[in-house]
Design goal:
about 325 residues, alpha/beta, TIM Barrel, eight-stranded parallel β-barrel, two-stranded antiparallel sheet, 10 strands
Length: about 325
């Protein structure tokens, strides 16, 4: 006991918080869990912002059980938009067919009835390299063809690309090699925009990008226009989602601020990204996987409240379905 009081006296002398002050800094109450599964409303509530969720496996819509589980999850935890990974049966076939296309068609119909929009998500680190443009655009045309075959109420709302060219050797090399990767990437987005505009089915075009694409070192003279790389990307897309991953919501909002200001200037929007995946090592701090669930809900609420107020800020995406489902339920969805 004498040791305890000696330590407390030392803390007070140094002006440092003692045990009572530390307890006072803790949240007074944990945010309430969302609505109980047994009392689900029929649709996701209208919030006025995007509440998105990335999905990377077509197992999520392969069976009626998985489709119902996914949509119940979205309603329970208030996700009104899905960025859904789409795969193809045979990339070498003369006519590309979407894998799990029957289940996908049913999911689009069921999601529409529950107030949930769905984007077709595609991505690979080299898919925007110039040598891959033809194949990547061929895949885009297959997505648009599938979309035209769907009833108007059961179509993709968006073509969403998660292309990460910074994970390639030419990007890492810097200099002219990196600039060529940047140009190829922008040329691909412009070509994709043209293919979408020439298609009768109205869908938007969006991409995921890291928050640091606005760094001065990536400024690019593209089509006689010198801008930040992030601004060139925002010019050609309808919206972007930043990989603004951090457990501190203030840091997330700081990382989104510049892109949101530019989005407002050009009449577009930007979304923030949150990570709940099993990230380990030096970057473990970017994920909510290792912290209590209430901290995730608290951070998400803070970010969404800012999206309601800030011009150019469209909402938030959570990365990703399987990781969040497992965190909340103690087991994976399949």
């Amino acid at each position: 006991m004498q040791v305890f009081w000696s330590i407390l006296l030392l803390l007070l002398t140094l002006g440092l918080p003692g045990p009572e002050a530390q307890d006072a800094r803790q949240p007074a109450a944990q945010p309430a869990e969302p609505v109980d599964l047994g009392q689900l409303p029929p649709k996701v509530a209208e919030t006025g912002i995007t509440q998105g969720l990335w999905l990377w496996s077509d197992k999520a819509y392969a069976t009626s059980t998985q489709r119902r589980k996914l949509l119940d999850f979205c309603v329970q935890y208030q996700f009104n938009h899905l960025a859904l990974a789409i795969y193809f049966e045979d990339h070498a076939a003369s006519v590309l067919t979407l894998r799990q296309h029957a289940g996908l068609a049913q999911l689009l119909a069921d999601a529409g009835e529950r107030g949930i929009t769905v984007a077709a998500l595609r991505g690979a680190k080299e898919m925007a390299f110039r040598r891959n443009h033809e194949q990547s655009l061929r895949q885009l045309d297959a997505l648009l063809r599938f979309n035209r075959s769907q009833p108007p109420a059961a179509r993709f709302s968006d073509i969403h690309y998660d292309i990460e060219p910074y994970n390639t050797d030419p990007w890492r090399a810097g200099g002219d090699a990196r600039r060529q990767v940047q140009v190829d990437y922008l040329d691909f987005l412009h070509a994709a925009r043209q293919h979408i505009q020439e298609n009768s089915t109205a869908v938007t075009l969006s991409v995921d990008m890291p928050y640091w694409f606005d760094k001065g070192v990536l400024v690019l003279d593209y089509r006689d226009n010198v801008k930040l790389f992030s601004e060139h990307i925002q010019d050609v897309t309808d919206f972007v989602t930043l990989m603004s991953y951090h457990r501190d919501p203030v840091r997330v909002l700081e990382q989104v601020a510049g892109e949101a200001d530019y989005a407002d200037k050009i009449g577009r929007t930007v979304n923030a990204g949150m990570e709940v995946g099993p990230v380990r090592g030096a970057e473990h701090f970017i994920s909510f996987q290792w912290v209590p669930t209430w901290r995730f809900w608290q951070a998400r609420t803070i970010i969404e409240e800012d999206a309601h107020r800030r011009r150019g800020f469209g909402g938030v995406y959570v990365h990703y379905y399987r990781a969040l489902y497992e965190k909340l339920n103690g087991e994976p969805p399949w």
